[in-house]
Amino acid sequence: MSNTYQNFIDGKWTAPSSGKYYEIRNPADYDEIIGSFPLSEPGDADAAVLAAHRAFPAWSGLLPMERAQYVERFVALLDEKIDYLGECLCREQGKPLAEAIGEPSRGAKECRYVIGEATRFQGISLPSERRGVTNTVVREPIGVVAAIAPWNFPLLTPLRKMIPALVAGCTVVLKPSSDTPWCSVLLLELVEKAGFPAGTVNLIIGRGSRIGDALSGNPLVRGITFTGSTLVGRQINKIGAEHFVKVQLEMGGKNPAIVYDYAGIQAAAKSIAAAAFANAGQRCTAVSRVLVKRQQAEELEKEIAAICGEYKIGPGLEKGVTIGPVINKKAGDSIMEYIQQAREQGATIAAGGNHLSGGVYDKGFYIEPTLITGVRADMTAAREEIFGPVLTVQRVDSFEEALETANSSEYGLASCVFTDVQANIYKFMRESQSGMVHINHGSVSESFMPFGGIKMSGLGPFSIGTTNKDFFTNLKVIYNQYI
């Protein structure tokens, strides 16, 4: 590979004004260079925003179904490339190939749903208090949207931001994570092939806050949709507030699973492990802590520990691998520090806990699926988002204690409960402080359901499904006196 890639601005592949590039390497094999990518400057971001701003009147002026036809061509091209895109994603981000192929496949499904939304941007008609007057409410696209995407889902998340914006009539500047820009380049190649008008979709690649801050602070940007850490989301919201831009933030999570008076302990263990260790735990919705009835804890811990030992760890392209490397050494070192700190604070590493070495493991940062037991609420591992293949277990003596502990986090993204007691289910549904609640299954979302969190996990309208239009459009109230 080792190609040099460019930004995509106003319909053209454009070199960064700095003339500088940086390398991306395969997290499963540091010897493999994926390519060289632009180290863009704020001026490059401004050029991309200006192109989107100039393209907006014509694009928003198209009929909704005319915009949808462009997206239909794009999705047809996406369908043709699903296996190829999955392999590229695996090489760039590290997740196992089956998971990687699932990402563009699900993305195509979500895109098709959004295409249908083109004819469902309903308004409101209300009777007037006055004779000869009609009152209506319509939706209009907000304008230029800055879409800032994370590294853990480098195909799916850009699609979730870019396609609904386009269908609504907005134009887009996409800024991928500097850790995984290749997938966005591949998507923009399909955008170009689908024939979208110049400036409708733009791609700007660069390091973190330097480009993100430039996009967030540009007054021509009228919407910022961001997925990433709470720390960065707070900064984006602060900058965007200076020019009253609409903001949609999807941020961190410390997602609990309560297991209390549940007969299917083995099933619960499988569901929790799948939710905890998919993508090496690098999901904002990953289950990261379990709160279990004391009398059921030993059985549950044994079941999860056994599952931890069944994972095959290795390069994502290798047959049968179920957990790949974490994204890079910096992330791996942070995860291992959390595990060591848990030991020092008195917890028990019941399974895993090791950074693997030797042979292929020396070419990436591989961490065993890790189960930490004997955890107390005051321990760091019980409170902070680790973002790796680490699951903690804390024993509780009542369902009320479990729910109170689950809600004590500053985050509020996803939560799960496994119980056979209907009263517990209803209590959890009402009182769980999270944007998404899962009853007797892990934190697995579906492709047409709204996706988002509360507290420090989210701000603004939820993404996916019917709630997207609440972000990408503004309401306009029209009073028409005809007599």
Please characterize this protein's 3D structure.
With 483 residues, the chain is α/β, with parallel strands linked by helices. It folds into 2 domains: 3-251 and 457-481, Aldehyde Dehydrogenase, Chain A, domain 1 (3-Layer(aba) Sandwich); 255-446, Aldehyde Dehydrogenase, Chain A, domain 2. 39% of the residues lie in helices and 23% in strands. The protein is built from 15 helices and 23 strands. It has helices at 42-61, 64-80, 82-93, 97-117, 156-168, 182-194, 208-216, 230-241, 265-277, 294-308, 329-344, 380-383, 399-407, 422-431, 468-472, and strands at 3-4, 7-9, 12-14, 21-26, 29-38, 124-126, 133-141, 144-148, 171-175, 201-203, 221-227, 246-250, 255-259, 287-293, 348-351, 370-373, 390-396, 411-412, 414-418, 436-439, 454-455, 458-459, 473-481. The protein has a 7-stranded mixed beta sheet with strand order 15-16-17-14-13-19-20, sandwiched between helices. β8 (144-148), α5 (156-168) and β9 (171-175) form a beta-alpha-beta unit. α4 (97-117) runs parallel beside α5. The N and C termini lie far apart (69 Å).
Largest sheet: 7 strands, mixed
| Average residue-wise pLDDT | 96
- The CATH class name of the largest domain reads Alpha Beta
Number of helices: 15
* The CATH homology group name of the largest domain: Aldehyde Dehydrogenase, Chain A, domain 1
Question: What is the global morphology?
Answer: globular
Indicate the CATH architecture of the largest domain. 3-Layer(aba) Sandwich
| CATH topological fold name of the largest domain | Aldehyde Dehydrogenase, Chain A, domain 1
Distance between the termini: 69 Å
Low-confidence stretches: none
How many separate structural domains?
A: 2
